[in-house]
Write a structure and sequence with these properties.
eight-stranded parallel barrel, single chain, 9 strands, alpha/beta
Amino acid sequence: MTLNYAHRGASGYFPENTLIAFEKAIEMGCDAIETDVQMTRDGELVLIHDELVDRTTDGVGLVKNFSLKGLRELDAGTWHGSSPSLQHIPTAEELIILAKSQSININFELKTGIVIYPEIERKIIELIYKYNMQENVLLSSFNHYSMVECKSIDKSVKAGLLYEAGLYKPSQYCKLAGCDAIHPNFYSVNEDIIHEAKKDGIWVNSYTVNNEEKMKQLLDYGIDGIITNYPDRLRSIIG
């Protein structure tokens, strides 16, 4: 079965990485939420894609320089124009609570590359265990060292390697890193890569797939997961 991952929630319709985007994605029939994790000055795990708050809030500056309290005072919805009310930057814990209540999986992408967040791997793993969600959470990152670190903390944690390049034998590379999944951009994956990964016991979850014809093609290839801004479109195709 191919999993329907809502990319930053139903971000094609609502402000990305907000509770309303997550809630609407669940209403649209997603199987999982894909979201981005960064860390505040006081060590709290928050869900925002950019290292800067400038694009998706009414604030200015680096996430790492804000306290959680200061970050929560920002409006994360008005910029999009679709939110009926003020939206705050959620915490990872809030999403875990929501996902657990709705029996939804989560893909946390750790954004520890441009800004290196010490201990972010340990903090997210501890949070997953706090809510007994280890079977329902997949971690991923473009920083593959971060995923290796997650595996060194807990081998049972599910870890995926994000990439854009045309990697040679990516599933073998994934096994070398001791990880469980590859997360290629949709233009970096083909039928051979998916079939080879299945032989190697590696999952393939591709991002960000918004075109319905591409969705159908990847489904025909037997891909494990599709990450999309439009989970309703993918749900209508999967059935």
